[in-house]
Amino acid sequence: MAGNGAAQESQVSKHQEVGHKSLLQSDALYQYILETSVYPREPEPMKELRELTAKHPWNLMTTSADEGQFLSMLLKLINAKNTMEIGVYTGYSLLATALALPDDGKILAMDINKENYELGLPIIQKAGVAHKIDFREGPALPVLDLLVEDKNNHGTYDFIFVDADKDNYLNYHKRIIELVKVGGVIGYDNTLWNGSVVAPPDAPMRKYVRYYRDFVLELNKALAADPRIEICMLPVGDGITLCRRLT
Ligand code: SAM
Ligand code: CA
Questions:
Q1: What is the pTM of this model?
Q2: Which of 7, 15, 96, 127 could link 45 by a cystine bridge, Cβ 3.0 to 4.6 Å?
Q3: Which ligand is nearest to the CA of 68?
Q4: What does the alpha-carbon distance between residue 86 and residue 238 come to, in Å, rounded to a whole number?
């Protein structure tokens, strides 16, 4: 029915707006989390970057403030020092990471798009954490291949955040599982993919959601079956699966 379809479509778009980036059933509950626990504690540079990104046409891609807070807490809990990020956009998760790491911490950050990184860069510089970032423009896969080639890089990363092209996540996994430390953590982002992982095949879905859905489903199955890692899928943001390397 046309009416129903429109309602479903508006439901789809609501969850894609910045500020509604949550899979919680109630938007009010999500707002409560943001207003009670996230925004009051959000570092000023992250607030500035979030507001700048909100004006950008692709703002849908940004990490949400609650997920930024989660990443920051996680990095501190595991005493992360040497980290990697695949998929930077304007740098919200990158800045959360850079602020959470000690002064001599490192982030190898990769993105095919440098322009968006450069939008956020002045804020990162002003925050005094740019020296921790080694940004590489271009596709991540060849960079990972080079890193894996050199055995000295094996088992050297405390944390790796993957938030880029979902159709490559399994290719990334094959490589970064060698690069993360035993006991270190990989975070795969968007593993609940807009809730589409449980949507019926005829559900209204944006084209890109439908396209990447099968890759996300395949990734989720592969991670659950991988004996080299312990996993935990969290409904934070659009779903993040934490993988702790076991062997
Ligand atoms: N973590 C970011 C943040 O907090 O705002 C969001 C990243 S956004 C969801 C995905 C990014 O992946 C885009 O900036 C895109 O340019 C980048 N990307 C897409 N394909 C890539 C590839 N093959 N290698 C590296 N980056 C890629
Ligand atoms: Ca993401």
A1: 0.92
A2: 127
A3: 1
A4: 17
Tell whether ipTM is more than 0.90: yes
- HSE value, Cβ hemisphere, 13 Å, CA-based, for 41: 13
Structure tokens of 24? 């919680």
Q: What count of Cα atoms within 13 Å lies in the side-chain half-sphere of residue 175?
A: 20
Q: Rounded distance, CA 17 to CA 219, Å?
A: 25
Q: Output the CA torsion sign for 28, 32, 33, 34.
A: positive
End-to-end C-alpha distance for the chain, whole angstroms: 52
How many Cα atoms are found within 13 Å in the side-chain-facing hemisphere of 11?
16
pLDDT in tens, 45-60: 999 999 999 999 999 9
Residue type, 129: V
Q: Burial letters for 31-67: b for 16+ Cβ neighbours within 10 Å, e otherwise?
A: eebbeeebeeebbebbebbbebbeebeebebbbbbbb
**Which of 60, 61, 97, when mutated, tests ligand 1's pocket best, judged by the most ligand atoms within 8 Å of its CB?**
61
**pLDDT level of residue 99 (50, 70, 90 thresholds):** very high
